[in-house]
Structure formats: structure tokens, C-alpha cells
Amino acid sequence: MSFSVYRLVKNRHNKLYVAHKYLYRFYQTDNVFGYKKKPSSSYTVSKQVLQKRCNASNLYRLVEAYRKYGHRYSRVDPVSFAKFTSNDEELDVRRYGFENTQEIIDSLDGIVVGIPSSKVALGDVIDYLNKVYCTYIAAEFDYLESEEEREWFADQLESLANSTIDIPTKRTILTLLIQSEAFDNFLAKKFSSVKRYGAEGSENMMTVFHEIFQSAAKDNLEQIVLAMPHRGRLNLLTGLLRYPPAQMFYKLRGNPDFPEKYQCNGDVLSHLVSSTNLEFDDKSIHVSLLFNPSHLEAVNPVSMGKTRAKQLTCQDGDYGHNKLWGDKILNVQVHGDAALTGQGINQECLELSGVPHFEIGGTVHLVVNNQVGFTTPADRGRSSRYCTDLAKIVSAPVIHVNGDHPEEVLKATRLACNYQRRFRKDVFINMNCFRKWGHNEMDDPTFTNPALYSVINSRRSVPQLYRSKLEGEEVISDKECDELYDEYFDWLNEELKAADEWEAEDSYFKEQWQNISQPDEAITIWDTGIASDVMTFVGLKSVHYPSNFAIHPTIARGHVNNRLTRITDGKGIDWSTAEALAVGSLLLEGHNVRISGQDVGRGTFSQRHGMLVDQETNSIYIPLNDMQPNQGYFEIANSILSEEAVLGFEYGMSIENPNNLIVWEAQFGDFFNGAQVIFDTFISSGEAKWLAQSGLTVLLPHGYDGAGPEHSSARIERFLQLTDSKEDRVDAETVNMQVCQPSTPAQYFHLLRRQMIRPFRKPLIVITPKTLLRDPECVSNFAEMERGTHFNPVIGDRKVSPANVTRVLLTSGRHYYTLDKERQSVGIDDTAIVRVESFCPFPTSELLAELSLYGNAKVFIWCQEEPQNMGAWSFIKRRFENLIGKPIKFSGRPTAATPATGVGKIHTQQQRDLITIPFVM
Q: Coiled-coil ranges per the record (predicted)?
């Protein structure tokens, strides 16, 4: 029997449902609306018609119940350890107005499409509903907000229920499963003490991957960006992604798997990556498996950012022309069940999925649900019924499938891929499986999960179950299966023999990175200035807007007019103007620039106004995108209230293309700590682990202005601790990242431009000001940014005579201005104030040169606003004394548990002490 149950009462169901209770009352009673029924021969006919309509309405409600609750009765769990139970009444036919399953349902007006006769037994309908919604595939989609999506999903499910898998595909699936099992067995035999995080129990993830890759190629996609954790990673690499097993075995023997010429520490086996072209039916698809730290799910936003960067490069998205994202590039993410539920970054990523400037056309999610998180069983690992319930917050459908049944896994994957391609939305495949071993192969899971593992240890493997099925269907013979296994095992043996001769190929810095390399052991100076006429052009363009644009009057009076005056005079350039000049000049040179963060269009302190909003139409205009044809693209991405996922997204964009300046700005500097995982595992260590260079620039507003503990400090000390700067050796540009606190707009201008001009990329942490943004003392002139100028790691003091100096204060950022103001007000002329603009690389040679001017200086003091156990003090002290060779004292707040006080009077007194004590020490 073939019919479409969803179309049962299509286009009429609302009316039928509403009418149902009134029709039923009319049929049951003699008095409706005060009228007496008249006995007549036609009454019997009307009664039959009403009964048919009641049955149609009842049947529709029954179908809706299967659509809504069918997944609760499905057989998707291969080991059957469920926390939640279901109410048996949910699918009871009596609940929907039927007496028993023998009742005959008339096919009225084509309501039930495809029924071969005009009548069908209710029992046959229920059998069909069970087949569609309650077997080894089940789906949750009734919560989808779009009726079109719900109808499409139901139609597709019914088509899948009646579909069959052809023999070549069955043999392909079995081959993948046998090879995966052979690979795990080989590693267990040859490297028995290695934690390989094998796919045993979840081998059908190979079926999912193969179908996704093949489906993408068929749909003419060009690339897939894949993020996945460690479990099953090695199986995928060798089984589908063409990773040479000899290279893997070489690394397993303790050897580095990268060329010796590179400065690199490498990473562990379970974080290996691949970038390869695959062929399916004469169509090619490029798959990039991203590097992955052990911090669960942290790679997901990185993969989204890299996907979007690829889409921007090949113009695969909406540039204001209502074009769907993802025609060419697809994002795929793999999750563990416990991690999907427990890691908040997943909610952040989902909330990014439909936001302008972050959308990528939907992600296909595979949940490898082995029902254990580390050692915690599923019933203690979450509060919700399913680990995928998070998907409901963005109206993403979930397809549950039994991982013991490869053909159903394949069907589920096809459904997911078809949905993503059709609606460009996220979709989840929840593949319920198991984990043969504990958290790793050295772990005994029976310590904490004896009941679960008594079931697992008594059952056959997934490949063996499918092998028996296909042998029973005479699709393949027992001998052929053995040959498949032995052939793959023998091939792995040959690769193992070749491992000692394997040599690392230089696969880094190719294609768009071909002009990028690792820096030498030196500090170089780069001319980052631009011509004055270019500054004038960019500056004027940065505040130009169409004549019919209704600009906010305050912005017109203040921001626009003030900038026009500064640009015309070529002096008094404030912080935001210098930023606009840097960004605009990079755009004219062909670079793309993206600034992302919370309210970055306006700026936290209402200083940027890089995007203007029409006060009448609410339309957005970005002046720097309208300077000249064929310029770079300036993207201002106002983000959701997230740090970790957004910063991960921006890092992903930065590692895709070195020609894009990617900037993330925290709303306040200390808000970065919500993204600490991204800083620790990607930004500070990505090049050292994976040779992945990133020019990501991070702006962290910092300054002690009485805002209290959580809005004062950017925690400079944490970033300095993350650097690989040596305290007893002069730094070079080989440091893992730069940490700078510029004190003038011109210095900030040069830092931004330098990120794109040098032939290497390094993350840049910029400690940016707050009150200095409008301080009349904190301004620059065109002369400081013209050709021939550059960033100065140290700014000396030319306000005092070097011969008179007996005391040298060293400081950074805003504190220079408060110290200088105090010096002038008191009339001190024996103290020089030297600004350290770059912490890392530490400017040893520049400091030596500057301090050599002060031959009579006996006292050197590091001055900072932060407490002694915070800020740059501990970093500066050891390097100053070791490399400069002079003792140095400290002036700042006393050691504290919080960065700043929340009491106004205490703050005022501390500020007074900070600017008076250094001059009398």
C-alpha cells in the first residue's frame, strides 16, 4: 500500500478539525442551536456524510499524533537504556474517536493520496504510520515554524519509508564498515597502548560521511568544511579522506609529522587534519577537516567562520541581493551527545546560524550518540529527553536513527542533506550507537556503567551485523567479506612498513597563503604610512552619506562635522578617525576588513559610527564601502551577546585568507574571559600546534575610570602569560602573538595596517582606551601617519632635557597622560616618562636606545594602574632586569583579588596615589 498520510486532509484540515466537535455533536444529539431534526429519508445520507467527515478529522488528528509523538515509540536505541518513558495513550486510536483498528476509512475526495481502492482499513493506516514514524528512523519536526517545512519533511519521510537501497550502495556501505573495523583492529594489535579513540560501536558514522560527501558533490557544491571531535577521527582520515596511514604510523612512533624547517610543536594523534579532493561520479568535492583541540565543541564556531570566509571569497552568499548562502560551501559539524548538551558554545553557535554577517546557509550536524559522556551515563548527563533538544531553539529538525542499521542511517543522512539544501537551515542527525570501550581504549567502563556494558559486551559489532544481513540477502558472500577485511588489513601492514621512510611534505602556505611564511629571528620595521592625499580622501569618504539619507542629528553635528574639520586641518586626529583611515586605506589596497562584536557599528563608547542608520527607513549605510569601484569589502558585524562562539567564528575567518583583516572587539576588555578557551587553544597556540597562521586582531577596551571590578581591566597579565616571549632572551617576530597598548591614534593606525602589510600573520591583542577616545591630548597629525612612518614599540620623552633626568618612569597606555599631567602641574623636570607601546615582542633594543639618553638616571620605576599581581608588572620586571640590566621598582595598586574597587572614594584616593608616589620614590 502506498499513500501519503500527510496529505490526508491537506488544505482542509484546519476547517475539519474545528468543525469536528460540532459535527460530532450534531450526529449524537437531536438539538443543535435550538433546532429539532426532522425525520426524513435524507437524514440517513446526511448522517453518513457527517460520519465520513468525522472520520477524516479523527484520522488527521491521529496522523498528527504520530508526527508529534512517533519518535517516542521508535526503535532508535541499539542498547535501550532510556531515562524517559512515553504515555501509551498518545497513539491510542480510541483517543481519536475510533473504536478499533478494523474500522474502514473512506477515501473521500482524494484526501488520502495513493490508496488503491476507495476504502482502507484503519489497521493498514496504522501499520503504515508505524513504518514511517516509529521504526529505526524517527524525526522531530512538528515544532518547525514553517508549514512548508513541516509538509516537506513529512512527505520526505514517507518517501524514505517506501524507498530501497540498491545493491552497489549496500556493498559500498559494507566495505566502509569492514574497513573501519579492520583499521581499529589493526591499531589495537600494532599499537596496543595508544589511545586511538576508535569508532567501534559508531562505525556507521562512515556511512554518514560518505553520503554527505557524495550528496554534496551531486548537488554541485565545491567544498565542505568539517569539524569533528576525536572519536572516529582516524577512521575517517584513512578511510575516506585519503590521509596516508604511513604518515599516521610515523607519528605514532613518536616522530614529528611536519617539515623540520618550520617552528612547530605539533599536536597529538587525535587532532590530525586533512584537506583533500574526493571524486564521486565524475564530480569533485574538496573536504577540509579542521584541527581540533581537546576542548569539546570549541572548533564548531571556527568551522563556521572558515565556511563564511570561503563563501565570501567565492561570492557564495548575500551581498544585499537576497541570494542564499551556501551554494558552493557546506559546513558539517560532528558532536558527542554529552558535549552537545553540556557545552554552552553550541547554543551560541546555533543562535549565530541565522544572524546577518554570521549565517552560512545551514549546517548539517551529526551527533555520534554513544550514550556516555566520559564516564557519565546519559540519564545523568542531561535533563532533557534528547541530547538534541537544543536544536529546537532555532527550529532545526532532528532525525533520530539507530546506528545498528546502516541503510536507515544512509536514509536519515539523505533526508538531512536534502533539507539543508532546500531550506538552508541547520539540521541534526542523532545517530544512536554505543562505545565499545571506555573513554579511551585504556579505560574500563564497567567501573561506572556495568549494566550498559553488560549489554554492549554481549553483542556483535555493527559491521558484523550488517555483513550477516547482506550475506542473507545474497548481496555478498562470506568469502568476499573476508577478502575485503584481509585486503585492507594487508594494505595497512604495507603502510606500516613504509612508515620509517615517510617524509613530511611541505603542504603549508599554499594557494592563497603562498606569499605568507614564518618570520625570521629578527624584528623588522615596515613602512605602514600612506600619502596625505589618500588620508584626506578616505577621511572625507568615511563620513560621506547620500543626500536623501536621514542621518541622526547628533551624529551629523558631532561625529561628522568634527571629523571633517580634523581631516581638513590634517591634525587633531582622534582614535576613531585614525581607525577609519587605516581601514579605508586597506580597502583601497584591495584587502577586505571585518570588525565584529557587540554594537561595533556604533562602538561601545559611541566613537566609531562606521555604519549609519537612516532615522526614517532604518536602512544601513556604510560610507567606507562606497569610496571607489573594485575596492575591498568592509563588513561591520554586530554580533549576538556572545564571546566564545563569536571570537571562534572570527578566528575561523582569519585562518582562511591572509588578505582579510579580521577584527574582534570586546564590549569591555575583561569580557574576553567568556572566550578564554578560544584564546588558549586556538589564538595563542594555533601556529605552534598546526602551523595555522592567523592575523586576527582583538581590541580590548581598558582603563581605570571608576567603573568597578568588571569594567576596568582587560587582564593584560593573562595575555602576556600566554605569549612565548623569553624573559632571558631578546624577542623576535617569531613570538606566538603580539600584545600592544598604543597610546596615540597614529600608533593604533600603524598597528592595524601592519597586520596586512607584513609577509606573515600573527594574532594581535590591542589594549585600547576608553576615556582617551575623546581626550584632546590623545590626538595625532597626518605627519605621524604619512609615508615613511611606522609603529614605534617605544615612545621616548622629549619634554624634558635628558641631562637633567635622574628618574625614569616607564608606563603604557592612558597612564602616561595622567602622569604627564601631574608632572606638568607640579613642575617636575628631572623625571622622564617613557612609553612601552609593545609588550610582546618585548622592545629590548628600543628601550636600550632610549634609556641610553639618560646617563644620570639612577631610579627606574614601572608605573601601572593595575594591582601589583596584575597588569604587565611581572612580565616587565624580569625582562627589564635581565635584558636591560637595571633594577626596576613598582608603582601601582597593591595586590588585590579584583582588578578594581567598586567604592568611589577608594578609587579616587588610589588614583591620587598612582600619580604622586612615583615622583617621590
A: none
